[in-house]
Write a structure and sequence with these properties.
With 161 residues, the protein is mainly α. It has helices at residues 2-21, 32-57, 84-100, 103-132, 134-142.
Length: 161
């Protein structure tokens, strides 16, 4: 349910509303650009769903604030970036902006990026540090907050809360 509510709103219903308000909802022409944009949307959605699975299978929790992972998730895509779920959502929104040629969606994607950054830096990272201590500090030093590393994190699955 929270997959639909949280990222579904950010990457689905809000962009839909933006496109509808600017009469930007249309079937895009088939072109290399539209195919590339659609691939970006699909890849972003796959990244998001993989992270949701990792939260459930490894973290023993969900992306819902009322049931967060109880084990620090440092495997899967989290070996390469600390925030693959946010990266996936942003990829979906940027792909939608590209697919529909929407400057408004690009502006929205930038606002989402700023919000994600502030949320991660001011709330999520302090909470994870408090919850998982040195395990999270080691992980944080090895894996970038944004972007990706070419040297995957080799640490253990993670500590429990």
């Amino acid at each position: 349910m929270f997959v639909l509510l949280l990222p579904g709103s950010v990457a689905g219903s809000i962009p839909f509303g933006i496109l509808r308000s600017e009469n930007g909802l249309r079937i895009p022409d088939l072109s290399p650009s539209s195919i590339s944009a659609a691939i970006l949307v699909v890849v972003g959605a796959i990244v998001l769903l993989r992270c949701v699975w990792d939260f459930f299978a490894t973290g023993k929790g969900t992306l819902a604030p009322i049931d967060p992972p109880r084990v620090l998730v440092v495997g899967g895509l989290y070996r390469f970036t600390r925030n693959p779920m946010y990266n996936g959502v942003l990829a979906v929104v940027v792909g939608e902006a590209w697919l529909f040629g929407s400057v408004s969606l690009i502006k929205y994607a930038l606002m989402v990026l700023v919000f994600f950054h502030l949320f991660v830096a001011l709330y999520e990272e302090p909470v994870l540090t408090s919850q998982f201590g040195e395990s999270y500090r080691v992980y944080r030093r090895a894996v970038p907050r944004w972007g990706f590393t070419t040297r995957p994190f080799q640490g253990a699955t993670g500590s429990t809360a």
